[in-house]
């Protein structure tokens, strides 16, 4: 697996997952409302979430943003290489951290890193059309909605549509 380099934003240090992070992040990954548009059901216990968070076969890398001055993790940010130069991104913010610009700040830092430091050509995100906040975030970062796939994935809530969003390196001005 590729290394997870430490990234910094104005307010956060984005680092690899560490033992204990699972306890701080569990409220997001166990909440049915927060996990509604995730590809799997909420986690029932911290141990199963820990296995997921630290799975060496996940096919990607996860960054954990923590405040510069110390404190608990505020979200997870993910990048998975799908083809040469192509990465899928994902993220999950803790419910009590929403609407503070945190996701925008941290996802923007990841996008910049993937394009400028890792030579990515294309990034994409796969988001349920009903996930208004997540769709608004990627749109605000310059992603283009490229596809609407109907009943594309069967999840814990049934068959779900997906919107595919894409961003090319030369479209990223940051």
From TrEMBL:
Superkingdom classification of source: Bacteria
Q: Which GO terms describe its molecular function?
A: protein N-terminal-serine acetyltransferase activity; protein-N-terminal-alanine acetyltransferase activity
One cellular component GO annotation, for this chain's record? cytoplasm
Question: InterPro entries, per this entry?
Answer: Acyl_CoA_acyltransferase (IPR016181), GNAT_dom (IPR000182), Ribosomal_N-acetyltransferase (IPR051908)
Say if the entry is tagged with keyword Nucleus: no
The answer, when asked if Transferase is one of the entry's keywords, is: yes
What's in the keyword line of the UniProt record?
Transferase
Q: Which Gene3D superfamilies match?
A: 3.40.630.30
- PANTHER family annotated for this entry? N-ACETYLTRANSFERASE DOMAIN-CONTAINING PROTEIN, RIBOSOMAL-PROTEIN-SERINE ACETYLTRANSFERASE
Q: How is this protein named in the record?
A: N-acetyltransferase
What phylogenetic lineage does the species belong to? Bacteria, Pseudomonadati, Pseudomonadota, Alphaproteobacteria, Sphingomonadales
């Amino acid at each position: 697996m590729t290394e997870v380099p430490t990234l910094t934003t104005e307010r956060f240090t984005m680092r690899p997952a560490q033992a204990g992070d699972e306890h701080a992040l569990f409220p997001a990954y166990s909440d049915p409302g927060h996990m509604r548009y995730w590809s799997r059901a909420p986690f029932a216990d911290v141990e199963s979430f820990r296995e997921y968070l630290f799975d060496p076969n996940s096919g990607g890398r996860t960054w954990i943003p923590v405040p510069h001055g110390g404190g608990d993790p505020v979200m997870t940010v993910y990048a998975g290489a799908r083809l040469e130069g192509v990465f899928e991104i994902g993220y999950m913010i803790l419910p009590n951290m929403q609407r503070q610009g945190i996701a925008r700040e941290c996802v923007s830092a990841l996008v910049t890193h993937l394009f400028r430091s890792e030579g990515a050509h294309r990034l994409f995100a796969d988001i349920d059309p009903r996930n208004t906040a997540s769709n608004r975030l990627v749109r605000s970062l310059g992603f283009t909605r490229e596809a609407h796939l109907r009943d594309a994935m069967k999840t814990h809530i049934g068959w779900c549509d997906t919107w595919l969003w894409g961003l090319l390196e030369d479209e990223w001005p940051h």
